[in-house]
Amino acid sequence: MPKYVSTRRDFLRTVGVGLAASVLPGSLRAAQAAKKRPNILYMMSDDHAAHAISAYRSRLAKVAPTPNIDRLAKEGILFENCFCTNSICVPSRATILTGQHSQTNGALDLGGRLEPERQYLPKLMKQAGYETAMIGKWHLKQEPAFDYYCVLPGQGSYFNPILRESGGQWPKNEIRFARYDSRHSSDVIADLSLKWLKGRDRSKPFFLMHHFKAPHDNFENAERYDWLFNDVDIPEPESLWKSGNHGSEATKGMGTSIGKRNKRRNMGHHMFVEESLGERQYKRQAYQRYLKKYLRCVRGVDDNIGRLFDYLEKSGQMDNTVIMYTSDQGMMLGEHDFIDKRWMYEESMRMPFLVRYPGIIKAGTRTDEIINNTDFAPTILALAGIEDPDYMQGRSFVPLLRGRTPDDWPKSTYYRYWMHMAHHDNPAHFGVRTKQYKLIFFYGQNYKKRGPKPTQPGWELYDMKDDPHEMNNLYGKPQYAGVVKELKAELLRLRSKFNETDEKYPHIQKVIDEYWNK
Ligand code: CA
User: Fold this and answer.
1) 45 CA to middle of ligand 1, Å?
2) CB within 8 A of 277, min separation 6: which ones?
3) What is the pLDDT of residues 180-199, one digit of tens each?
4) Contact at 8 Å (CB) between 304 and 41?
């Protein structure tokens, strides 16, 4: 990847901000330079899988349309192959703010945190003359480094959420709504963003990160959606009925199930399905209840996005605002009888990513070029006219927005999930995804060398063009030996390039060495 050799000083030069001997002229120049640049509205929800957005044309598209999010695809661009590099909340958010893979930014798992000085994206946007705000789900524990913030502590509550607002002493700066005002978090977060947008200084462009809590579990919807989908039969994924056949020895029997397969962790129990039902009926009911609860939360997200669009339109800012929609990762919605994220399987690893900005994007564009969440920060910076610093590992995909694929655009993406057997019985793993193939190695070890016991290691290979639902593990089939060899070489290259080797974890490296050629 050719990287601009740029430093903080270079970007200051780019946007015409002097290094502050004369503060006033410098800030005036910054304000002038910033004036011509677009606003950036970055909207993200929590665990909203691409296949639960109708523009992605999945089995759910007809029963659960998302017209407002779809509008971004219709009037902008939709990325078919946007991937998370570590499919779980905190690490993905840390990657988005730093442009770095997990080992570089240090947020490997849910315990990760990001100190204000390492929140590069808002800091650089602020220095470049943008008015910055972070509203909604934050999850990075330390105080957000934005001009304004109003964020949920941790996961936050679905109803009547407490938030922490800038201006006070973190983390004691809590604001509460009146107890009788039982409002849903998606409505509250949209209200807060609208309030900030209406009250802000219009002489500067804005950079707003608007983060819904929904549709993270345990799904709770606003009352007005209580009856939604009541008479609807949610289509099932084919792989729901292939439980116990998860590709390799490494994944057999793993993962929280919808039905009774995983006795310790199954969703039917939490969906209050009658335990005496037979497996088939039990699973079918659990699936319907689970999906309906999830999709009601999705509807609340989509409706509130419509409210933000209305405001941008009425205030004449729709077309000079780059509008992005994504989720911190995907989500298994019954595929392979799994729920939750964490897996490198497609529904979990894939992130929705849609952008509307008529200034440079042709309406109705769809692209299958590969991008990942390390690329978001460099892209946002590029849209603001700033070169990304060389400590970011991603790359700006502004050329893709313009409809042009650079010759040296990456043809693969790296993945690593660290939390071995935590919460949902997912073994730790890493792998590589190209447009056609996905190779996964489950190394079966806890990186911390304590906690859950090691599990059986194993490889899985899928042909994503012939087998998009990952039903047939091709690893070990002689005709794929050449493909496997190439993918392993690519995997090594990416691990080394992105500081994702296991030098610090010899017990994992030992398993890798032992199984690399098995
Ligand atoms: Ca999440």
Assistant:
1) 8
2) 285
3) 568 999 999 999 999 999 99
4) no
Distance in Å, CA 88 to ligand 1 centroid:
5
Interatomic CA distance for residues 515 and 518, integer angstroms: 5
Task: Assess whether the region 38-223+303-403 and the region 413-515 belong to the same CATH fold.
Answer: no
Q: Rounded to the nearest whole angstrom, what is the distance from the C-alpha of residue 329 to the centroid of ligand 1?
A: 6
Three-class SS state of 12:
helix
Residue 319 pLDDT: 97
* Among the listed residues 431, 430, 432, 433, the one whose alpha carbon sits nearest the alpha carbon of residue 464: 433
Ligand 1 centre to CA of 328 (Å) is 5
Residue 361: burial class (beta carbons within 10 Å; 0-12, 13-18, 19+): buried
pLDDT of residue 19: 35
Q: Cα–Cα distance between 12 and 23 in angstroms, integer?
A: 14
Q: What is the CA(480)–ligand 1 centre distance, in A?
A: 34
What separation in Å is there between the alpha carbon of 91 and the centre of ligand 1?
Answer: 9
pLDDT of residue 7: 38
Say how many Å lie between the CA of residue 49 and the centre of ligand 1: 10
Task: Tell me the mean pLDDT per 10 residues along the chain, length 518.
Answer: 37 36 49 74 98 98 98 98 98 98 97 96 97 97 98 94 96 80 91 97 96 97 97 95 79 92 88 93 97 98 98 98 98 96 98 97 98 98 95 98 98 98 95 98 94 94 96 96 98 98 97 97
- For residue 243, the SS3 value is coil
Element holding 286 (H helix, E strand)? helix 279-314
Structure tokens at 262: 């995983």
Give the residues across from 370 on adjacent strands. 81
With residues binned 3-state (H G I as helix, E B as strand, rest as coil), the percentages for the chain, rounded to 5, are 35, 15, 50
The tokens for 101 are 């893979």
Ligand 1: centre distance to CA 316 (Å): 32
Q: What is the residue extent of each domain of the chain? A: 1-36, 38-223+303-403, 413-515
- Please tell me the CATH code under which domain 413-515 is placed: 3.30.1120.10
Torsion angle, CA of 441/447/451/452, rounded to 10 degrees? 10
Query: Considering the domain 38-223+303-403 in this protein, what is its CATH number?
Result: 3.40.720.10
pLDDT of residue 203: 94
Q: Partners of 437 in the beta sheet?
A: 463
